[in-house]
Amino acid sequence: MSLSGYFFEKNSFVVECFEVEYKYFLANLKADFLNLNIKPIGISGIIVDELKQTLVATRQNVTLYNGFYELIPSGSLETSGHKILYKNDLKRELKQEAGILDDEILAITPLCFCLDTKQNVYDICAKICIKNSLNNILKFKNNSEYKNIQIKNIDSIFVKKYDFVPTSSLILHILK
After folding, report:
1. What residues have CB less than 8 Å from 43, skipping those under 6 apart?
2. Cα separation of 24 and 18, whole Å?
3. pTM score, two decimals?
4. Domain span including residue 108
């Protein structure tokens, strides 16, 4: 997805975007002189369990920030007709990246809409509260996108100690 605009309407924040094939995103990234006017938009979240724990992992086999730490879930934004259903996208990524199912989710609350100025990528960010301890429901320790998936207490994560994806750093800053 590529951002075309955003604005406030009444009590809502509206994000407008359009579908773009991944190959055009890559071309724009590798050869910005093409000026394709592609502004990628995705989703990023932070899980918070009953013990104030979350998931942190090292990115692998990805285009941007390979080898950096990131909060789970994170991924692409998809549409359903003309609507952006970012909560469904977060649920999809949560299941795919950690094996956590919808029935474990208590609430998904929007946190911010941000721009990673280094990579020129936008993200809709949210907090995902779950019912149980991550120790009891985490299904994966690694997958094709992440290695070394760890359960960490949110208060014990020191962003400066690790190389975090900027969006994850922002989310942690907002929660602290």
Report:
1. 73, 74, 75, 76, 77, 86, 89, 90, 93, 123, 124, 125, 126
2. 13
3. 0.87
4. 40-175
- Whose tokens are 């989710």? That residue is 105
Residue 10 within any structural domain of the chain: no
Q: What is the CATH number of the domain that holds 171?
A: 3.90.79.10
Establish if 141 belongs to a structural domain. Answer: yes
Would residue 106 count as lying in a domain? yes
Extract the tokens encoding 108. 């998904």
Yes or no: say if 4 and 16 are a contact pair by the CB < 8 Å rule: yes
| pLDDT tens series, the chain, 176 aa | 888 888 888 888 888 888 888 888 888 777 777 778 888 899 999 999 999 999 999 999 887 888 999 999 999 888 766 677 899 999 999 999 998 999 999 999 999 999 998 888 999 999 999 999 998 888 777 778 888 899 999 988 876 666 899 999 999 999 87
Is 142 contained in some domain? Answer: yes
Q: How many domains does the chain have?
A: 1
